[in-house]
Structure prediction request, 1164 residues.
Amino acid sequence: MKFGNLLIAGVVTGSIYAVFAVCIAVWYRVSNILNLAVGDFAMVGALGVDYLFRVDSWPLPAAIATTLAIVGAFAYGYDQVVLRLAQDGRRRQEGIVITFFFTFALSFFIDGVAKILFGTDVHAAPGLWNGNSLTFATGLHLERAGLLVLGCALISGLMFAIYIRYTLSGKAMEACGENNLGARIVGIDTRQYRRIIFVGTAMLAAVFGIVESPITGYTFLSGATISVTGFIAAAYGGFQKPGRALVAGIAIGILEALLGGYVSTQYADTLMYGILAALVLARPRAMGFESAVGG
Amino acid sequence: MVTSKVTPAAGVRARPARSRSLRGPLGTSGLVVAAGLIVMSFYAAQYIGSVVLLAFTYAIVTAGMAVQIGFSQQIAFSQSVFMGLGAYGVAVLNTNLNMPSLLAALAVTVASGLVALVLGSVVTRASGLALAVATIMLPLIAVGYLSSAGYLGGSVGMPLTGSLWPASSPQAMAVGNGMITVAVIGVVVFVASRILSSDIGLELYVLGVDERMAAAMGVSTPRRKLELFVLGSMFAALGGAVYAGTQLFVPATLVDPTAELSLLMMLFIGGRRSILGAVAGALIIEYVSGASTWVSVNILVVEGVLITVVLLVDPEGLAGIVSSLAARLRRARRAGGAAADGGPAPACTGHASAGTGSAVAGVTPEEVAAADRRTSAFGRSWQARAGGRAGAPLLECTGVTKDYGGLRVLDSIGLSLPARGLFGLCGPNGAGKTTLLGVIGGSVPPVAGRVLLDGADITRLPPQQRFHLGVSRTFQAVHLIAGRSVLDNVAVSCLSSHRSSLAAGIVRSRLAQARDKAAEALDYLGMGRLSGMEVSTLTLENQRMVEFARAIAARPRLLLLDEPASGLSEPQRERLKEVLRTVGDMTCVLLVEHDLGLVAQITERIFVLASGQLVFEGSPEEFRNSAVVSSLLVGL
Amino acid sequence: MTAPAPLPAPPPAPTAPPALSVRGMSVAYGPVVAVHDATFTIAEGEAVAITGPNGNGKSSILMGIAGLTARRGDVEIFGKPAPPRDVMWTARRGLTLVPERRQLYPKLSAADNIILGCYSWTRSIAKARKSGAYAFALELFPDLQPHLAQAAGTLSGGQQQMVAIARGLASKPRILAVDEPCLGLAEAVSKRVYQALSRVHAEGTTLIVVEEAPKRALQICTRRVEVRNGIAS
Prediction:
């Protein structure tokens, strides 16, 4: 059942794009910054665990915990130093500079450090749930790692949705994204939410890197491609609507898988980007872009 | 007692608050060319020569990016692709067709212009982030294509046989290539600087800051966006061609997304709005990446840290840092000079100057009264221009209907206004007044009905064309361009460059004339003293008056004002009434206002909208006595 | 200081700290000084109107007090000195600002907008929903009842103003500062807004209203602070 298996593979990768796209969209609403380093955090998660476990022979749980802690600490530090200076200082920066460039630079930086630490080869975190791939009756296969990815995506998605809708803190986070000044007036610490989301996003990305890397393998540059795809998926929600970003992410994953399976692995990516570009141009409104971004 | 700022004496035209560059375009390019010639004459074959050569090659690309991305805020990620197009184009023509590289470079640049025209007409339909997203896929598509295109060298690259300056000895070749590159960058810098400092440059600036406002002021936004895309792409292709001809090898990594990012880094480190900054940025990055082995291996880390630090210090990059330092030096020198004169800076006349913004930057009622409007040249030329066909109405709306979602915001509205006079449009909130202004102004397309200006059907015309036909409007929120002077803000609506192409900005600039017209309009309102001030330092009232000045500077035949009195105090409203009365003698003014007293006092006819329908139309007398009106709106 | 309206305001007990005490406050935006050396005191339970021509510093005074912009000088709320740029501190201390132009959350429902007012004193949504403050806020504006689930951005100007005031009330303020409550509103709606404010004051909340047109404000305010050129008198 080729179509079915491609679909499953597409949904698995798509769910990662979706998670990253939602992370980008949610953070953009609150901070007006596009986190283009999401994929790089994922890469660090994967390669970090691999390094500690394989090269330094740490026990796996310790390797995972340490890597996540380091990612979280680094993200926290970046917010405290760079983002605070850029956004909370007396001369608050706005416009395309801060929207893109700080996280571009962060992405470069992380990739460069990863290159030094982990070298240029392909690595992957060890599979967390080893065994044969699960087979369904009609010839559908699902790798265990893939199931793990889907499970993580669903759980994190569900938790986030509950948080946003049913807790006051979640609504406060939404408020930060809707109107920064209005949020501060009722006592919401918007800077703290910005920080929380950034650190949370980084650690979540690292988790997904750990879980997904056994399927594909990562190099120090893999993060960049994932970031771009997450960015494109988030774009389909105009960067403001996490729901659409989620759907877009999955759709892109499926598209990629189908093109690779039916057309040709060589030109799959090229075609995919061509189609995506055409979609954005054909109906920019439908894609969720309301007005031009100034600044 | 706080000493007030130094203000220029009335009548003295102050320099625009942010002068763009210290030297003109000729000076800028001269500087680059001179430096380049020195390096190439002596060091062409050595290491520093090759670094500078490579940097200048990239600078050709970044200069175009400065115009397109930095200045006009059209974020497009397409330069590396066009650079690749130029480079691979020259390589193919040179290697396979034995064309001399120099000729190939020219051919490829022209061809890429055509490609950009076709691609751009599709891509620039999007704006802002949509544009960014649409173009970010271009490098990805290109990389995918290249890796499987064998004839282009696959994922390695393609060599060339002939360099730009064919010569026998490597020394001569290096010098020749260097000179050609310097010449090219010199021309590029000159062209780019000319465009930015021309009147078209002001159009581009406004386009970048607020596309919708630019359209309302007559800027042909679709055309400019396309022209910018073509310009950026052609410069990129030219840079690629020079790259191929001087490096004699086109690596596939030239088209990488990381290559695109590197180009952007160069631009933003140097200064996104500055041509000189674009060149400097390229030089810095190239120099740094070759400076030591450690750096070139870890270039990613270095670049990441470098750009973060530079942007934290100043988002305008090094150019911003340099110009802030220069401004600080100038201020220090001037303060020292003022102290030498003895005494504090002269306080202004007028209200008790407690050093508040309004006292310093405001204009006094005496000045306004003194501005003799009736006999000024501006007034006379406006009177001549305004007006329509005798006896016929200037503006006619028939059956105008607009729906938003399921809500009928305007329901078959019909009104008619003559060529001169003041008319009021009132109604409770949400009645559709601003929407109606939008329909007349062109930003809101109605689902039914017609709008006729002087007999001509303008219903389907975009805002730019209505502007040219004499329709001008203000908005509820103030939409001025921060960082520019009052004079420049008003000059936006006085530009005569709208129909010229971008290239015309290289040849001539009528910015001075536009500024003069703007100054006339400001004097007409008695606001000449403010012309040099930067707009975000003004009070709300003065900002509104600047917007008003901008709207009338084009001497419109139909002036649409959206709540001009909102946020103004009593004496300020008196002043506004006085100005409006004079203006109403010259042209047709439709005024949306909540201050019913004001409306009743100055208008000759009042229209009342409620829930999308026209419920009243009549004179102020009838308005006061109408039962319908007093049930809707209380407070006369 | 004039008191044109005959509404009596019981003078506070002499030993209780004033609700708001401002001494030598100045607010500057870059080179432009908007408020210069403002000094005044507001006792608990008073209703004070801050009036004066626009562009002369009224809003800046409120923003400086609430902590939304940098300021110099001393501000004390119920006796405790307020740190200069800390909106959360002032909100928790009991001063809530209903800002100019409302500043609502357009895509959240009206009810969500209002309940977020409770953020300054609780993080539990259940407690917020059951609280007296939330109930009072809703009760004050019966016109909003049918629109509570509607996205705030789609409401009319008057309804948005009501949501903004309700949100302010949900935070259990001891001092409610309202900046230009009737900006852009038609007369009939403005009257309703002022009726609500008057009721809020009657319940014991100290009220500060910034208004350009003193007529309306003085119907419910007992005192008036006139601001001209940034100087309060």
